[in-house]
Amino acid sequence: MACFFWHTIWITRDVTIKCMLMRTLKLLFVFVSTSLLFGSCSITFFDGDDLPPSLGQVISSNDLWYIDYHRTVGNTDVPFVSKAFTLSFINGVMYANNNMVDVGRTGNGLGIDVGVYNTFNGFLTVNHDLDGMYEFEVSVIGPNELELYNFRRNVSYYLVGYSVNNFDYDKLFYDNIEYFLQEYQAWEKVDAIGGTANPFDSENYLAFTPENLTTFYSSKDDFGTDVDLLIWDYVGGYEVFDVVGYQDLKVLELHYDGGVIEEFELTVTNDNNIRLYHISSETTYDFRGRGFIQYLKSDSKEKKKLDARNEGRKRTKVIRNKKLKQRYK
Questions:
Q1: Is the pTM value of this prediction over 0.85?
Q2: Which residues of the chain register pLDDT less than 50?
Q3: Which site from 27, 133, 209, 258 is most exposed, i.e. has the minimal number of CB atoms within 10 Å?
Q4: DSSP E strand stretches across the chain
Q5: pLDDT value at position 271?
Q6: In 3D, which of 147, 157, 149, 320 has the Cα closest to residue 239?
Q7: What whole-number distance in Å separates Cα of residue 22 and Cα of residue 17?
Q8: What angle do CA 14, 20, 22 make, to 5 degrees?
Q9: Would you give the DSSP letter of residue 165?
């Protein structure tokens, strides 16, 4: 009877150990599976027999990926990304909108063909027509949001997905207003409404150049003057400010020699016109762009035809100071 008792104990213990071992293996399997799932390029939950989308499907799931450049992390850049405002990945072809002017129309909204791409194992490989081969690790970080990380340059870009029909054009223009001002060789004054007489009344042209984000030019030349023949009477610095509580309004300050500052509320009318409200005189000036500068993926022959300002143009992170709105309607 004692032998049977001890034999029963050993059998029970053996079964218990086996059960514990099986439970441990099951937990280990769940842990490994979960780690693999959450370590992949995207975190998505699926019901039933649905399979997770491939990386190729993810990056082609939106017509446009807006490059939210102000969120960029890193001190270097990938040239073709820093020149673009949007990227699109359609059937192995990569498109880019390198200009804000004509955005929504060029390439049916996708921009111009700038290269080809492929995806494999969570990585995006791009062969850009001018800049060559680059590889990115892709992470899905939120609904319609991607992070592209290039390990060689140690830089991360953040992309927000849109369809062509719901793209936020206001955000594009106002978040990147300095670059929009640079897309024309000159801005010609076409109207002045209300207000009191002031020295700015005689300045008929403005220009903002891309060698930096702080230089402007002003001319008193007659209306209709060829932009290549303009004589720039003033050269100074400028700064664009965000306006607290407003997404579709900026403040533009022009800094002249001698400490003179002209301050304007700046709004974008369309991709060919801006409006400047001169705060001190309460005059509203309308300007139209002349001499559009298209930033292409140009071959060497086309490059020679473009304005020299095209060379080396790229976006940088812009950190703006803020102002309170001074005009109340």
A1: no
A2: 1-49, 298-309, 329
A3: 258
A4: 64-67, 86-90, 93-97, 112-120, 123-128, 132-142, 145-150, 155-162, 184-193, 205-208, 215-219, 234-243, 246-255, 261-270, 273-278, 283-292, 322-323
A5: 95
A6: 320
A7: 9
A8: 105
A9: G
